[in-house]
Design goal:
Elements: H1 2-15, H2 17-54, E1 59-64, E2 66-69, E3 72-76, H3 84-93, E4 97-112, E5 115-124, H4 128-132, E6 136-139, H5 144-148, E7 153-156, H6 158-165, E8 176-179, E9 182-190, E10 204-208, H7 209-217, E11 224-229, H8 235-249, E12 260-264, H9 265-308, H10 310-318, H11 323-360, H12 368-394, H13 398-403
Parallel strand pairs: 5-10, 7-9
Antiparallel strand pairs: 1-11, 1-12, 2-3, 4-5, 4-8, 4-11, 6-9, 7-10, 8-9
């Protein structure tokens, strides 16, 4: 019986090929949209994770706290509470911290010959490359001894090196540049790092932090402390050790708030992951609306089909067809339209997703969850929106159906 019902339903779909295709189009577009929306979310999460991880491994960032002047709170980062002595104390006392470095950054003019540029002058120390995964294209980074001696040496970012030395025909390493009219010897050029979303990491000049404090800022205050834990499992322990060390250094009594803020890489990744997940669900939900529109199209066409085949239904009932058989036939037709649209949309959506992944050089972005949700939702749409036309067909009285013209 069910085989016969399937055969008759398939014949009904094939009778009007163009109309069946146009009916399925809403489901096809809906499934494609759901698949690709989830793929966009997965791709965004992968790209964000890669970008954050490219900045270094197991990173912990310490920023100054918030200051308040005249009752106006200036937010985190506005207080000047951290010093280079804090950096040295963390390196000495915290066993779960693999490396730590301070950072001072300000904008300054760099000159070589007739070329000049205004860029970020970053004072840091010898541990910075290992924390931030910086590799050298040429030369080397400065050493601990050079930091202690406040040496006038500099490491150029790749963009800064291009701006200063393009067209000169000389190798940057070993040349003398001027930073705010003070001569520095270039000892290295960093490999390209790209952007972190807020700034071009290659547009900078790194110098020893002690040199920057002595020659430019005249203060031992640092704007940022970067540290790395000995392993991912020790991230929380390292963060607690840093917090304890800074509270002791800053002489903060128990119960008072920190005058600094600590973030670790895992927390940042978790927060960004939650944001992309919410956006993915939102995009998928919006895309699912087109599946509902496709379901309405299926119901509309099935109602037209019931009207067109009223006499056929009457004849079948007159020769003994049960209402359940008529109901099953029209439900099968509705399900065939929705399932056919789902499969076609799945193929097209997967193909589009693969093309995007190949272009962005990412791995497989097709979400198994998205595939299951899209197919099940399409089947549900076919059944739900096919019930009313099928019930209408099944309830037709044979005499009235045979009289229908």
């Amino acid at each position: 019986m069910w085989i016969e019902t399937l055969r008759v339903a398939w014949q009904g779909v094939r009778t009007n090929k163009l109309r069946s295709f146009l009916t399925m189009l809403g489901i096809i577009i809906g499934v494609m949209a759901v698949i690709m929306s989830f793929a966009v979310g997965v791709g965004a999460k992968v790209m964000i994770t890669k970008q954050v991880e490219s900045l270094g491994s197991n990173i912990i960032t310490v920023m100054p706290g918030q200051s308040s002047v005249g009752g106006v709170n200036h937010g985190f980062g506005s207080a000047s509470t951290m010093t280079y002595a804090d950096v040295q104390r963390i390196a000495q006392d915290d066993p779960d911290v693999a490396a730590v470095s301070g950072l001072i950054s300000y904008s300054g003019q760099v000159v070589y010959g007739a070329n000049n540029t205004t860029t970020a002058i970053e004072g840091t120390d010898a541990s910075y490359p290992s924390i931030r995964n910086i590799t050298m294209a040429e030369g080397r980074f400065f050493l601990d001894q050079e930091v202690k001696q406040s040496a006038t040496v500099a490491v150029l970012g790749s963009s800064t090196a291009q701006l200063l030395f393009t067209g000169t025909g000389v190798d940057p390493v070993g040349q003398t540049i001027e930073i705010n009219q003070i001569p520095f010897t270039v000892i290295g050029v960093a490999a390209p790092q790209g952007s972190n979303g807020f700034q071009n990491l290659d547009d900078s000049v790194a110098i020893p932090i002690t040199t920057e404090m002595n020659l430019f800022t005249g203060s031992d205050r640092v704007q940022l402390i970067n540290a790395s834990a000995v392993s991912a499992d020790k991230m929380n322990e390292a963060q607690q050790e840093i917090e304890s060390t800074l509270r002791v250094d800053h002489q903060l009594p128990p119960g008072t708030s920190d005058d600094f803020m600590i973030q670790n890489q895992a927390t940042i990744l978790s927060a960004l992951s939650n944001i992309t997940t919410i956006l993915t669900i939102l995009l998928g939900s919006i895309s699912a609306i087109s599946l509902l529109v496709g379901g309405i199209g299926i119901m509309n066409i099935m109602l037209v089909s019931v009207t067109e085949r009223t006499r056929e239904i009457g004849i079948r009932k007159a020769i003994g067809a049960k209402s359940s058989a008529i109901l099953g036939q029209f439900l099968m037709e509705s399900l065939a339209l929705s399932l056919g649209g789902a499969i076609t949309g799945l193929i097209l959506g997967a193909g589009g997703t693969d093309a995007v992944a190949h272009f962005l050089k990412l791995g497989n972005l097709v979400s198994g969850t998205a595939v299951v949700v899209a197919v099940l939702f399409s089947i549900a749409v076919g059944v739900i929106f096919g019930v009313y036309p099928a019930r209408k067909a099944a309830r037709l009285r044979p005499v009235e159906a045979l009289r229908y013209e």
